[in-house]
Design a protein that fits this description.
Strand content: 15-25%
CATH topology of the largest domain: TIM Barrel
Number of helices: 11
Helix content: 25-40%
CATH class of the largest domain: Alpha Beta
Shape: elongated
CATH superfamily of the largest domain: Alanine racemase
Low-confidence stretches: 383-398
Number of strands: 20
Mean pLDDT: 92
Structural class: alpha/beta
């Protein structure tokens, strides 16, 4: 679709019977510029957050040329849409077929492992190649993260020195990585983990060439406003400078959410209003997976083609379009009390883990892409900008 100034312009021209992913490439470019300007090391985009071709193209054109991939389909997407990009296979557990294709077909040389068995698999499948960058993922506490992801991956701390000693002679470059948890609100969480890893480097007595601090950088959601984002790279750089690393060691990060969350919202059609329940055409098995299953809060507003909505608000919950009773987002969402069939609800900050989580269950969930030029919600990257030409009232979840 063509670009529109605002979603109001869009819904005047197009039917919203299918959910619309309202894309804002200018906000993705803004986030990319911030990381390239403020983070002193290499910025790798975590493709899992949003693998949409327009996102990959926008990031690549903005100067993000390193990509964290976790599967063959992600490799294929990056190869197609980001010519000349460097990919890194950052999934800690990989099939031999995926390792083989990564190394021999896509030219990937960076592989993550978190145990000796995975290391052996990488070495065997690449015929014990001499040009590997091997990165040990260490398990860390996710205290301070709004969405902890610890427990599945990461070498236990007691085993880190042994694994570093084991892999050093086998790798052209050796690295360490960790993940502090998604939407990590405390910049000093990174420093704590980096200081801890410094002790294990000392215990191992080996040179480490790369410190990868993972993702987890926060963005703004209702009730989840992070501290000034500028503090994060400063704290990380200070901790990096203290680490006993090899001369000319590299600092990496792997943002996903922080690069793309602000870049997409969802325009969803109201099919039925029943008391305090609103039935819409997207839900828990589509773009609103996090809102339903993780109880994640998102900004929300009503878009009406004709006429002004009531200024009085009412608490609603949302039901998605499938026949499954689990397809519900409890909220509460405060919207105009006179919301009705045919209205459009815009739910914001869904650029990360929104379209990426669509399932197609029951024949629902697929969105149509459209593009808007406005900046409707508060951004962590610049002051909030309002479009004064639109008469609208803003509402948020609590």
């Amino acid at each position: 679709m063509s670009a529109f100034d605002t979603p109001w312009d869009l819904v005047r021209h197009f039917d919203a019977d299918r959910p619309i992913a309202c894309c804002r490439p200018h906000l993705v470019r803004q986030a990319a510029k911030w990381f390239l300007t403020n983070f002193t090391g290499e910025t790798l985009y975590a493709v899992k957050a949003n693998p949409s071709p327009w996102v990959l193209k926008t990031l690549h054109e903005s100067g993000i040329h390193q990509y964290d991939v976790a599967s063959i389909p992600e490799m294929e997407l990056v190869a197609e849409h980001c010519p000349g990009a460097t990919m890194h296979f950052m999934h800690p557990v990989k099939s031999r077929a995926a390792i083989r294709r990564a190394y021999f077909d896509f030219g990937i040389r960076t592989f993550v492992f978190d145990c000796e068995a995975e290391l052996d698999k990488i070495l065997d499948t690449t015929a014990r190649a001499k040009d590997l960058t091997l990165i040990l993922r260490v398990g860390v506490s996710n205290q301070g993260a709004e969405m902890p992801i610890d427990g599945k991956f990461g070498a236990p701390h007691y085993d880190v020195p042994r694994l570093l000693k084991l892999v050093r002679p086998l790798s052209a470059r050796l690295g360490l990585c960790f993940h502090p948890g998604s939407q990590c609100m405390d910049p000093f969480a990174w420093a704590v983990h980096m200081d801890t890893l410094s002790r294990y480097i000392d215990d191992s007595g080996v040179d480490v060439d790369i410190m990868d601090v993972g993702g987890g950088f926060p963005v703004s959601y209702p009730g989840k406003e992070p501290t000034a984002l500028e503090r994060f790279p400063i704290v990380i750089q200070d901790a990096f400078d203290r680490m006993p690393l090899a001369r000319d060691a590299e600092l990496w990060c792997e943002p996903g959410r922080a690069l793309v969350a602000e870049g997409t919202s969802l325009l969803t059609h109201v099919e039925l209003v029943r008391g305090n329940e609103i039935f819409i055409n997207d839900g828990a098995f589509g773009t609103l997976y996090d809102a339903a299953h993780c109880k994640w809060p998102f900004p929300i507003r009503l878009i009406r083609r004709n006429g002004e909505p009531s200024v009085r608000l009412k608490a609603f919950k949302l039901f998605g379009p499938t026949c499954d009773s689990a397809d519900v987002i409890t909220g509460p969402f405060f919207l105009p009390e006179d919301i009705r069939e045919g209205d459009v609800i815009e739910i914001g900050t869904l650029g990360a883990y929104g379209v990426a989580m669509q399932t197609g269950f029951n024949g629902y969930g697929e969105t149509v892409d459209a593009f808007a030029n406005d900046t409707p919600w508060h951004s962590v990257y610049e002051p909030r900008v309002f479009n004064v030409s639109e008469k609208s009232t803003w509402f948020s979840t609590i």
